[in-house]
Amino acid sequence: MMNLHDGYVVDVPYPTFVHRQAMPTWLNMVVQQQGIQAPDLKRPFRYLELGCAMGIHLHLTAAAHPQGHFVGVDFNAQQLLVAQEGIERTHISNIELIHASFSELLTQQLEPFDFIVTHGVWSWIAQEHQQAIVQLVSQLLKPNGIFYCSYMSHPGATHFTSVQKLMLEMSQHLTGDSASKATQTVHFARRLAQTQRGLFEKVPSLADDLTALAQDKPSYIAHDFLSQHWQPQHSADMIRLMAQQGLAFIAGAGVIENIDVLEFSPEVRRMLDQLPVLTLRETSKDILRNTLQRQDVYVKKAQKLNQAQRSAYYDQQLFCLTPQAPVGQSLAQDEKLGQLHDLVPLFEQVLSSLSQHAMSTQQLLKRSKLKISAQQFSEILMVMVWAGYVHPCAAQQHPQMAAKMNMWMHEQALPWRVIPECATAISLSS
After folding, report:
1. 8 Å CB contact between 46 and 113
2. Which CATH number is 16-154+232-300 given?
3. Which residue ranges does the record assign to the Methyltransferase domain (predicted)?
4. Which of 77, 408, 409, 422 is the most exposed place for a label (fewest CB within 10 A)?
């Protein structure tokens, strides 16, 4: 069997991943936190995943959002067969799979979408396929619709370019499947790193990065490093490209990267605030963070929430605990929240409050007795969302659908479970 199809690894399956930050409830939160209108999840909506692979993310997201219609597209027929088998087992009916390239999808008559997402695709495909994604988003995303795109970013990925080229070139002289080739090429790159010469002398952290990479699944390494198309992007270029299609960059989907006050000193924040345009600010932040991967959220024909709508969001959007929330435990040594020493008592209070019932930002602020605005308090809440302990509540719940999905996850020995109260999925192994 061919290892590559159009420059992309096809002989070993792409590992299954689930991305909470690409789910509708999470994306709506990200957008509304920035004061931008988002799709109404209380009504039927449409969601398109470009490059859905075996459909695990799509399947879980559909089970968590029964009011939506979910469409997954992939060029790999074998992976779609696996996805279809799963759908037939769970009988979750709000999913549609399409076997097509992105260019082929442009010729099909599809209804517009409220959400279009693509994760782990953009940086690993040819420019013609990237352009097809741009055209799809331009044609199929509704006004106020959300586009999520993850991609490798400069400068964090910059030093990997030579190593990736080495791995790709070496793989073409090896036998076996792509997973085997990935293991062998990483091993050789690590041997080079041990010399501490040249690139490895200038960038000593690269050796540690390769050691960490070697711990990943070989199939993941193959898909991530043995593609002929391996293109880190500058965020400024992506933001401009999307702006040409009428899409405004809103925020990072990871949430924590949107809270500058936690990351940068007052002096650095003043420097960033003085920059005249968004592309300069985002590029500067990427340099300061050494960003390896970005998860951009864009909105088509974005409209700002007025003051009444923003107040309604803080009053009406409820938040609840996730199963991982360490209620009643000290957070002083928590690996995610413990470093924010001054906020630990507040974090613990929020967890205690939410253990009673779901609450809004405004309700939690009132309980805290802090003399700050709802917007300021919402940033504190977002830290707890990022940590995985708090999550926005679902607009609609369907426990029966979630139960079907979770039973199938158990049968397949996969770690994810739908949490219907949160309209998300979590990993039992995390």
Report:
1. yes
2. 3.40.50.150
3. 46-166
4. 77
